[in-house]
Amino acid sequence: MSANSRRRALRRMGSLALLLQAPTLVRAASAASIVAVRVWPAADYTRVTLESDRPLAAKHFLVDSPDRLVIDIDGLELSPGLRELLGKIKPDDPFIAAVRVGQNQPRVVRIVLDLKQVVAPQIFTLEPVAAYKHRLVFDLYPQQERDPLLALIREKEQAETQAAQAVQDALGELIGRIDRPASVASPQPQPIRPPASAPALSTPAPAPPPSPPSINQNRLDRLIVIALDPGHGGEDPGAIGPTGLREKDVVLAISRKLRDRLNSNPNIRVMMTRDGDFFVPLHERVRKARRVQADLFVSIHADAFITPKARGASVFALSQGGASSTAARWIADKENRADLVGGVNTVAVKDAEVMRAMLDMSTAAQIKDSLKLGSEVLNQIGKVGRLHKRSVEQAGFAVLKAPDMPSILVETAFISNPEEEAKLRDPDYQDELVEALATGIARYFAKNPPLARHRAL
Ligand SMILES: [Zn+2]
């Protein structure tokens, strides 16, 4: 802050103090108070939530060079609660470099977000729901959405190059040790047979430009892509166990382990619908899976039930008609409410509705394949833990509605059961569960080989 602007700010504060003493402004007591501020940074988008005891109205505008997002909030006084926002911006936030808050006018608070990149902001309010009071939400999206399929392929190519390099290094060392001339051509080990057109790894100088790497369509078509969907996240903690274990955290931990386990197969690549603690709307989870043309969709949960005695894992598939049991319907209703707690922008809901209408075209074939996948997974889980029910259940889960890919939702255990909460927390049990899930998926593919895909980049 320059000396000048500091003086200006002081002057403003002085006049504000005077105004506050004026009897006409006694109703300043009716200003909203901030209950909590939360920041959820992620590569997809960063969310800032201001929770208050009454609804807040905000106006915003973007300023460039340097890029800033300015938000004016009506009916609010600067308070220690709001100032907490300053300490909540992490240095690795992909979008926000810094934040400033100030009393712009009496009862108008100005928040200035210094940006690391140009953003497409969405600012909206949410009515009180679950444990939350009124929420004012700023979602900072990148102006250009990154291509998830391209990211997946690049990641795979990088992993392959590194693996090949490691083998070459080891070979080089071995060759050196047995004292052969270095000019002996080293083999080019590759996890996957390279097509004739593939560029040799030991291309002589000049070095090729670093980007963009060429992507071979054949290899792309042969790749098995699995969409893993850790439930909940961000504002939506999911269910909470008796000692405080949160569903959103434990399902992310299990999903990450399962991703690494599946990615160890060179022909498989996992796309996670979220790899961090942020909320992804239900239709967006399905859209992400469809954008990478996934061969499977597996949603991972650990829910609570009405009674703490409920125990055991369950696997669900979509139902076109009614639910297969009252419990299945109850769980589906509960999962489908995630958007309310997680917080979805109702202005952008039109897209969501179009998406939903399209997803309602789910076919009987999808459900048939989902039941096959589900029973393979259920069989394996039954070997490491207790099952809630011995058959795959069905209900109208919004997240299982991709019409073109087998989709299951796995309730790994009831986090509301003290014994199962302890198991979910145990890394060894998580490993067993991951092994069971991976084996179930592998058995499904062994019996139902994926069709050659024609993925378009
Ligand atoms: Zn859940």
Automatic annotation (TrEMBL):
N-terminal signal peptide: 1-28
Family, as annotated: Belongs to the N-acetylmuramoyl-L-alanine amidase 3 family.
EC number(s) from the headed UniProt entry: 3.5.1.28
Superkingdom to which the source organism belongs: Bacteria
UniProt protein name: N-acetylmuramoyl-L-alanine amidase AmiC
Gene Ontology BP term (one): cell wall organization
Catalytic activity, as annotated: Hydrolyzes the link between N-acetylmuramoyl residues and L-amino acid residues in certain cell-wall glycopeptides
Bias kind Pro residues: ranges: 188-197
GO molecular function: N-acetylmuramoyl-L-alanine amidase activity
A Pfam family hit: AMIN
Domain MurNAc-LAA intervals: 286-442
